[in-house]
Amino acid sequence: MSTTQKEQQPKLILHWLEESRAQRIVWLLEELELEYTLKLYHRSQGKAADAALLEKSQLGKSPVLEIESIDSETGQVTTKFVEESGFIISYIIDHFDYSHKLSSLSSEEKELVQFYLHFTEGTFQPFLTFVVVHAVANGMSPFFARFITSKFTQTIDTLYSLKNINLTCEKLEKDLEKNYSQNTSSSQDLFFVSNKITGADIILIFPLEVIFESNRLQDLGFDVSKYPLLAKWVSEIRSRAAYRRSYERVEREGKGQFKIGPPLHNNGA
Ligand SMILES: N[C@@H](CCC(=O)N[C@@H](CS)C(=O)NCC(=O)O)C(=O)O
């Protein structure tokens, strides 16, 4: 990034909630090597976000990207709040991808990225949200009722969520296979669009990490071995330097007091 671009870059403040979708925005900021400030929030009982987030988002959800710009002539400061993961990802790429790392795509590829941004939050994520909410509710229900509530939620999870998660993973596995077979570059890495990292990979890491890293899904009968390319993609993404830096940054700033991974991560929470 040139000095001029750095000087012009507005101040970015990411409102980040533990065990949430917000981690992928930290990863995007790291991929683009941008300067940013993190405001970290805990979850309270029942996994609801700390009420302090209501001061930044009307629904009290994370991520929220606060953008503070200073008019170079008048010195006037304007603050904007950008919400919704898909929109935040598009916004950051459109405004702050100074080296065109994620944005130099054909118009067809850009359309495909848009598809994944909508598909992930609009269709894919709700199937997982059911499973997460059920796991949390079971953990909170009185001990004597837990057997019955967990039987009930397990039936819904299996008949509805797991069925749809499998259909989604079949589609995404085929998408990766198709994109990889069209890849003419020397890169052996897997990506959803083009032969490099795009907003599609950024948005998809959260649900796919929930699925591939969670015992809960596997306890319900999710068979990881049916999706070798998706498993390889998750592992490649997790080993990227920028991805690892995103974890280190939160770990450092949160002094180890905040849970970083996605919900249901190994602990069934
Ligand atoms: N579609 C929104 C969903 C935001 C959302 O529900 N975030 C969750 C974290 S993964 C949250 O803030 N939960 C806390 C709460 O609902 O109190 C997005 O993609 O940003």
Key descriptive features of the protein:
binds glutathione; 269 residues; 2 domains; Glutaredoxin; four-stranded mixed sheet; 10% strand; Glutathione S-transferase Yfyf (Class Pi), Chain A, domain 2; 9 helices
How would you summarize what this structure contains?
InterPro entries: Glutathione-S-Trfase_C-like, Glutathione-S-Trfase_C_sf, Glutathione_S-Trfase, Glutathione_S-Trfase_N, GST_C, Thioredoxin-like_sf. This protein is an alpha+beta fold. The chain contains 9 helices and 4 strands, in the order H-E-H-E-E-E-H-H-H-H-H-H-H.
Describe this structure in words.
- Pfam families: GST_C, GST_N.
- Residues 9-100 form the GST N-terminal domain.
- Residues 106-263 form the GST C-terminal domain.
- The chain is α+β, with helices and mostly antiparallel strands and 269 residues long.
- The chain folds into 2 domains: 3-96, Glutaredoxin, CATH 3.40.30; 107-238, Up-down Bundle (Glutathione S-transferase Yfyf (Class Pi), Chain A, domain 2).
- Helices cover 52% and strands 10% of the residues.
- It has helices at residues 3-8, 23-31, 85-96, 107-140, 146-181, 199-213, 215-219, 228-238, 241-253; strands at 11-17, 37-41, 64-70, 77-83.
- A 4-stranded mixed beta sheet has the order 2-1-3-4, covered by helices on one side.
- A hairpin with a 6-residue loop joins β3 (64-70) and β4 (77-83).
- α2 (23-31) crosses α6 (199-213), α4 (107-140) runs antiparallel to α5 and α6 packs across α8 (228-238).
- The mean pLDDT is 90.
- The site of glutathione (GSH) has 12 residues, from loops.
- The site of glutathione has 12 residues, from loops.
